[in-house]
Amino acid sequence: MSNSIPEEATTSVDYGNIDLPPSYVDNVQDTEREPLHNNFVQDILENDLEPITVSQVPYEGGQLVAKKPIMLTPTLSEDKQFFVIDDETLGISLSAFTRCELIEYLYENIAFLWKEYAQEHDYKMTDSAQVLKRRLLKVFDEQN
Question: What is the rounded end-to-end Cα distance, in angstroms, of the chain?
Fold first, then answer.
């Protein structure tokens, strides 16, 4: 497998001088290219809410490898404007306008949690942080 974020999360289109994800182009934008309303979610395909499988996460020149692939199923926010992933085991609660952005944020957050929790000394951590550390160490191995 590749040591990078899946192509699904990085596909983009040329939008003038700005390179934006395809779904971002479908949004109504203000003059600073910030979404005012997410129209993309109106056209959700069945596979947009299919589980996301995490088996490898790019991490500081190497990767984090899941001991067993992790399946996370996105949902929609109550207002149907965001894709959401909540996972108590990994301590993750994320939302994004698109599935691609959600995958990108997921990988970034796992890498952040690994650095801040899994690699920290126990004596510097609260009890709940140590619990998260043990969960991360149980789920992932670091490979360089």
Answer: 14
Supply the pTM of this predicted model: 0.68
Neighbours of 105 (CB within 10 A): 17
Reported as a single tens digit per residue, the pLDDT across 78-104 is: 988 889 999 988 889 999 998 999 999
Q: List the structure tokens of 129.
A: 């942080």
Q: What are the residues whose beta carbons fall under 8 Å from the beta carbon of 125, sequence distance 6 or more?
A: 117, 133
Listed in order, strand segments (DSSP E) in the chain are 13-15, 18-20, 28-29, 35-37, 52-59, 62-72, 75-76, 83-87, 92-96, 140-143
* Tokens describing residue 73: 């199923």
Q: Which residues of 15-29 are buried (b: 16+ CB within 10 A; e: fewer)?
A: eeeeebbebbebbee
